[in-house]
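Entry 14. Structure prediction run on the chain below.
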Amino acid sequence: MTTAARCALPLADEAAMKLVASRMAEAFQPGDLIALHGDLGTGKSTFARAAIRALADDPRLEVPSPTYTIIQTYETRKGMVTHADLYRVSGLDEIEALGWDEISEHAIALVEWPERLGTLPADRLDVEISLAPERGAEARNVVLIGHGAWAPRLARTLIVQDFLDKAGWGMAHRSHIQGDASSRRYERLTLDRRTAILMDSPARPDGPPIRDGKPYSRLAHIAEDVRPFIALSHGLGTRGFTVPDVMAADVERGLLLLGDLGTTPVLREGRPDMLRYAAAVDLLVALHGKVLPHEIIVSDSFSYTLPDYDLDAMLVEAELLVDWYIPFQTGETLDPDERDTFRDLWGAVLRDVAGRDGTWVLRDFHSPNLMWLEEQHGIKRIGLLDFQDALFGSAAYDLVSLLQDARVDVAEDLELRLLSSYVKGRKAQQRVFDPTDFAQAYAIMGAQRATKILGIFARLAKRDGKPGYLRHIPRVWRYLTRDLAHPALGDLRAWYDAKVPPPEMNE
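Output returned:
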């Protein structure tokens, strides 16, 4: 028996149905079948047209009914969309002759008269449309039924819409924003010339235990709900840093409505910009010069304690190289003794860093998460987007994240200039600041971070079907090579030279 979720929507008119279609389109994914049921004239093509226009982010896109062409295809921000009207098709042979299997395999398929396909897939969304003349000439009943994998997706879509309705943004135009490598989703909402950001971040389920009965997420202290984001937004905002305002929150369901920090990245034309990166470095100097607490008190009833970026967390992150990158490159896994050697070598250098020079480590302080606010001044020109995984640990980590950006080349001379600027700023604040010790911590945290990212990008490609991250691996390898050149990492460098295959460089 397949599971199903059902929602009946009595709609006043065709405009309301178009709105439902555009809202549902945000949940569509490549490979989906959306089966449109209803008599002639109920509005199946109208529903499909509104959904396609939403997927294309083009409210004026020409979307003719495929009554005579039978199949129409569209390129959208979610890939290929196929719109089919099978009313005039006599049987499966004719459908196969049209190349349906090939056309629809990886597309979002919106199909009118889907019963002509015969047995429908277990994972699908049924949309049943009927007229409701007793409520008015334009009134309709729309019933959404999510089958199989579509059941939780439909339920989540309805929860999100309910949240937006209660926040007063239910009628907003919604457009998807490319997010990070996590499971969080983001949308930009536009309503009456105002904008806001929807963060859809349901509580993450625990993965399998990997050590001491704990999953990776707990060992590495990955945020499991939206509470850390709310707390860090408060903690950073009250200390003068630019963060999105939390306009509305449903903590239990993992939904936040956030202020919009705009669309101008800290990069300029896709490259690091000295002025903007210098402002980001100044922000870190200001943050690291403050005495920051472990516990952030948001209200009398809500506080949050940052976990320590402890040795166990740093080691389990580094082991992603062993778990994913090395097998990805060689097709083989390390034997247990070599794995133990890897942990021992890393433990020896990380013990020096763990717990020392404690500050808030935002952990994702790099170009995708930094916005440029031209109208602001000083450190407020940098808008911070992603900090829910923040920890309490070494000040070197976030500087490395910025200056050894995994997704964009930072030239070595620019890195050194900005690193020098940071050191000067910290020395001006704190006479006991030791540049030599910091340089060592910078190399250690840089090597640890690059090691982790090599594993993450290999995992994204191998496990999650996201091969696009592989193009960044040569860049991360170059950063790793820089960091391992530090004398404190000599033993590790020798182990990497012997055991870790370099990637094929794309230069």
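The CA atoms of residues 9 and 308 lie 48 Å apart.
Filed with the rest of this week's runs.
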